[in-house]
Queue: 2 jobs
Job 1
Amino acid sequence: MQKLYFVRHGQTDSNLAGLLSGHIEAELTEDGRKQAAAAGKELKQKHASIDLIICSPLKIAYETACIIAKELGYS
């Protein structure tokens, strides 16, 4: 049985300010990086294998995906 897991990007300064940034590039905060790492650790702990990670081309999504991949042992 295949499963899909959806993970939102980590926190940004725009999120903290209550702003919607849409397609504007933003940086993850340090807390955002910690959130991404925690998501990766939880995925690794609770699920046997993740075969594929897909993300949007936005920097925040890509960085979040890379951090998760690292926690899963893919980098």
Job 2
Amino acid sequence: FLATELLVYSEELEVAGRLDCLALVNGKKTLLDWKVANNISKNYYLQLSGYQLCLEAMGWQPEERALVRIPKTNERKVWNADIRKYEMKENNLEVIVPPTDLAFDKEVFKSLRLPYKWFNQFIVK
């Protein structure tokens, strides 16, 4: 472990967060985010890219990123497209490396800041 519960920020993007873990994994600086869930939502890939942008703004460049899914139950429902129904499967710890392009994820994250700021202007007042 290099750091846990690290507060990160980007003044340029006006965003901050607390990432779960920075660690050396197989000799590479890796950004890890724990998720206690039965499934991983694709929007978590964008959350990781936001952390990456913050770390880069702070002068630190992770080489890898991954989500660590910690199961809530012993079994979970998984969709089987072949038979077009859910099946119960064993629910194990899972490490997911986002299959998406990091550069594109970072651009999407940046572009989503504008509508987020627009909506929040009504909450702040």
